[in-house]
Each structure stands twice: as structure tokens, then as C-alpha cells.
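Ligand-bound model needed. magnesium ion.
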Amino acid sequence: MKDIPSLFGSMVFNETVMRARLPKDVYKALKKTMSKGTHLELDIANVVANTMKDWAVERGATHFTHWFQPMTGTTAEKHDSFISPIGDGKVIMEFSGKELVRGEPDASSFPSGGLRATFEARGYTVWDITSYAFIKDGTLCIPTAFCSYSGEALDKKTPLLRSMETIDKQAIRILRLFGDTSAQRVLTTVGPEQEYFLIDKEMYLKRPDLIYTGRTLFGARPPKGQELEDHYFGAIKPRVSAFMKELDEELWKLGVNAKTKHNEVAPAQHELAPIFSTTNIATDHNQLTMELMKSLANKHGLVCLLHEKPFAGVNGSGKHNNWSISTDTGINLLEPGDTPHDNAQFLLFLVAVIKAIDDYQDILRVSVASAGNDHRLGANEAPPAIVSMFLGEELTEILEAIESGKGYKNKEKHEMEIGVSVLPHFPKDTTDRNRTSPFAFTGNKFEFRMLGSAFSIGGPNIVLNTIIAEILRQFADTLEKSKDFKSDLSALVKKTFSDHKRIIFNGNNYAEEWVVEAQRRGLSNLKTTVDALPEFVSKKSVELFTKHHVFSEVELHSRYEILMEGYCKTIHIEALAMVDMVKGQIIPACVDYQNDLAKLLKHKKELGGYDVTMEENLLVNIAKLSSSMLKKLTALENTLLDNKEGQDTVTHARFYREKVFAEMQELRLVVDELETLVAKKHWPFPTYGQILYSVI
Ligand code: ADP
Ligand code: MG
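Prediction:
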């Protein structure tokens, strides 16, 4: 039996290690920098670096790296060894404060959206002191932010930290109005539930589409999909279980609170959820989780698919971003409290979230837009592309009662008056019934369910933090001027709910009627990434993000360009992969099988007296479908050639969505039908059935 408590965090340079190993004054100075963001002196950094190096070397590390999160959506690292020559062909292991605090990777090969001309390609990485260093694969990893030489953010961490700062500032203003003088900081917290597929590596290696694009571009429906619903929470297969066990242990060593694991709805689909932590750490940890899922799967002869839609006709994978906001004194501000005073404060934060989601639904939608996620959102899968909120019946009734002024009678028959009466408690089971809502209140937090499985949670949380900070700012501006706090507070809660209740929808989000109803309510329905992305650089978005110093206008535009470009490239690669598979493997397979059939037909006819209906029919059908396939293939190839350079970004992306993607779908339809006719021994790829049920 392993000793889990001592295993946990054993590869992390955390609080305990720092306290034990750093000289007292250095530890104090570092803590001050951590909590107050003050400057770290170089002599202090030198001591910290040296201590870190000793600790890492004792644990087998030979290298260090600045670990950062460029706009590729994954993480990046460049390893340097600790060795330093001392003459006579000898070396010592060294690590300086300068190396710890700042790095200068060549940034020219990371996406910058035109931010950085290549002649000034240098970027730099800066240690994020709020996230602990850790050892991975014999390398000491220093979590860092990544900026261009002129100071623009080139990563997801920098704006995330800025967004945490702005919501901290605005939330503290609100808390002071309620007389809270003890909270010094307000932090947002996140627990991301991660879905993924695990398939056999041998199957994977036979599918160029999975290798190049992460999803299957062809594949006929298997006889059995997820219709029996026998996979969800089902017994975990031994191979999967061995993988999950090792994953848990490796994550624990890195201080990641991996907590829950289970099988998901689709065959071969699984989920992992950690215990929540502050958003910055949760983001780093989720990146580490995805990275380890991939590398450990490989070790077990498996492949972990993080794509949002690896298989058509089978549930895709998402990520549920459980979000809340709490004080450094340990109070969750989305927890309905036990006193009238706490409840009034809770209601104010609650309506702030409601207003933020309603006012900025388009920007929130942008934060979950990607080519991969387009297969889920707005494509008859959970959840839809329309942003709405679920509050549950009870909480909605309370807010409605406040709005109408009629008074809400709770179980104890107390009338509901803000700041006077106590809200009833909302046990999780009464608030979490709706699994179709994109943004659901679940008792003491919100669960944002629109994220794709491959996403960094950085992006969506930057948006959540900033839009809510903006509303808290507006509230604080109003209430700080108030002469009668209680009555102005009541009026504000009432008016906010009344103005923004259209965003609340407790019904079934998958129903056709909701689309119509949402339109009637004036909610937006940005179906695809191409529809959504322009909202990111709208006047409203620029105003919001620049006001809160989360993104400069230049940074916003560069991100917009990166996202649009990424979208086009993704579809372009998918189309090329399709063309390649059809020409190189599918056409030859059809030819071979037709050849077999023709030979048999000829032979039977020569012998005479045989019924040849089957051979003839099959030949005719396959020949017809093959011609149709060739036509669609040629159309797609011609369209790809038609891709004119120099188009504006939106036209370019529309071309990929409306022309290329549409033609890819057409080609797929024919090929999938052919797959059902051509003998399995000729079909060049494993089928859906073989892939989905490959792990036994
Ligand atoms: P489920 O949604 O699967 O029923 P839970 O509601 O228990 O599961 O938790 C889902 C996730 O929400 C977990 O990662 C949990 O740690 C996280 N969570 C719980 N409380 C908070 C909070 N205050 N802030 C952020 N995340 C939270
Ligand atoms: Mg959940």
C-alpha cells in the first residue's frame, strides 16, 4: 500500500518545502511577494533558486524549464540543464535567481497574431510566484507568464492573472459596503471536470485522421453506440483502471487534487474531476492533467483523445468549469448564508452574475468557440450555442417574489425581504437537476458547461472574471454613493433581476422550442466559431477588456487573428487529410473489392447456370458510389485550390465553414456508405465498432 499523504505534492516546491528549506527572512520576503505582488529582490531570488535546485537535484532533476502557456492552447517548455563548467572538464549544478525569475525563449514560432514582427522575435517569460514550481520527467518546471518584448501578453496566464486582480478589486469594494473589513483578497475558484476518450493505440495508428486531426473524418455507425446507456458509471475495465490509477498517483505527486473518476456516457469515454482550487492554479493543473493523460495513456498502449468530437454520432467531450468566488477568509460569496445580512450579500453577487451573463453573453460564447467545439455547441448536442442560465425553481421564485414585491413564503412562512429575512438553503439536489443548461447554479457555485474538452480553461475564466468584475464595479459605483444602503440595495437587486431575467431558463435547453423562445427573448444564437469570433473585437468587448486592463486593444486583435487563423488551419488540415485518405487508401480499397467481385462474376458466368444477382448488384452499387465519391473529392480539391490569399479574416473563415466544411460533409456521407458495402478485409481502417470497443 502506498502512503498517499506523503506521496501527495512530493514533486512540488510548495509551502511546506519552502518553510522547511528557506532561511526565515527569505521565506518571509517570498511570501510577501506572493500575497502582495511586491518586487522580488535579486539576492532573495538567488537564495530561492539555489534551494529549489538542491531540492530538485535530490529528486533526480537535471534540467529546469520555464513552463508557459502560449496561444497554442497547450503548454510549452524549453529545457536547460543545471550544469555549469568550472574548468578542468568538471561541472557543478547551478541555478541562479536571474534564471528563475526571467527567461528569454525565442518567441517567433509561437502564434502572436501579428503582434510581433519577426525581427523583434524575442519574448520573455516571467516567474508566476503564485503557482508552485514542480518536477516533471526529471525537469524542474517554473510556471511562468509569457510576454512579447514590448510587454504584450502572448499567453493565457497573463490576462488570467489580470482578470483575477480586477475581480478582486471590485468584489472587495462590495464587501466593504457590507461592513466586511477583514477580507484582504477575493479569489475566484474553479474545479474543472475533464472528459476524454481512451482507445487502443494499435487502432489509433491505423487511422490517419486521428493522427493528423484528433478526430475521425470518416466512419459508419457501429451496430451499437451509446443507446443502451450501459457505459455511464459502469464498471471500469482493468486496462483503463490501471491507467487511471497511475494518472491519479502522478497527479497527486504534482499536487493536483484528482478526486473523482468514472466512465462517461459514450463507449470508451471517461471523466476526471479534481477538487477545486484558485483559478490560476486550477488552470495550470488542468493543463498538467491533459498532458499527463496523453503521456500515460501511451505508456499503457492506449491513446487519450481530448478532441471535442472524435466520433460522429457518439457524444462529444466537454469540460465543466465549476466557478465560484470566495474571500481569503474562507467565505464562499455564492453560498447563501445563514443570516439576513449574508443573504443580502449573496443576492447582490447572484444578480451581478445574472447581469454579467446577460450583458456579455456574446463574449462568453466567444470564449468557448473553436472548430472542435462547433461539433457540440449548436449541433444538437449538449449544451446548445445559446447562452442561458439555470437557477432552479426555488431561487427563481425567490427572485420573482422580490421583483413583484409580493413576498416569498418559504417553508417557515417568513416573508422574503432583502437584508431582513433568511433565505432557505438550496441543497444541491434541488439546484442541480438540469443537466442541459450551459450555465447552472449548483448550490454554491456556477457550472459553466460549454467548454470543449481540449480547451485551456484560461480563456473562459478570463471572460467570466472580467464580465463579473465589470458588473460589480457598476454596483459598487452606485452603492458607494448611497445614503440609504438597505433600500438602495433592495432596489438594485430588484431592478437587476427584472432587467436581466430573460437569460434565466430552467427548461430543457435541447428542445427545438427553446431556440424559438430564446430568439423571442432577444438572446443571441451564435452557431459557429465564425459567427462568434467577431464579437471578441466588438466595441463593447474592447471597452470592457481595456477598462479592466485585462487585454489591450492590440492584444485583443492579435488573439482574434490567432483564433480565426487557427480555425481556418484546422479545417484546412482536416480537408487535406480527407483527400489523402480517399486517394491513397479508400479508392484503392474500392478498386480491389470491385476487382474481386468482377473476377467472381466473370468466373460464374463462364461456368454458367449460377445466380449472379448479388455480385452484380454489389458491383453496380459500389461503382455508382465510387463515381459519386470521385466527384465530391474533385469538388473538394478544386475548392481548396480556390482558397485565395489576401482575403479579409472573416471572408476567409466563412469560406472554410460554408464551402470547405460543407463539402467535407458530403464526401464523408458517400465514403461512410461505401464502408458498409466494401468487405472488411479490404477496408483500410478500423471501424467505429473496433475503435470504440477496442479496450477490453
Ligand atoms: P458533479 O457536478 O459531478 O455533481 P460536484 O458538484 O461535487 O460534482 O463538483 C464538481 C466540481 O465542482 C468539483 O471539481 C468540485 O471540486 C467543484 N467545486 C465545488 N465547490 C466549488 C467552489 N466553491 N468553487 C469552484 N468549484 C467548486
Ligand atoms: Mg458537474
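The chain is about 50% helix and 15% strand.
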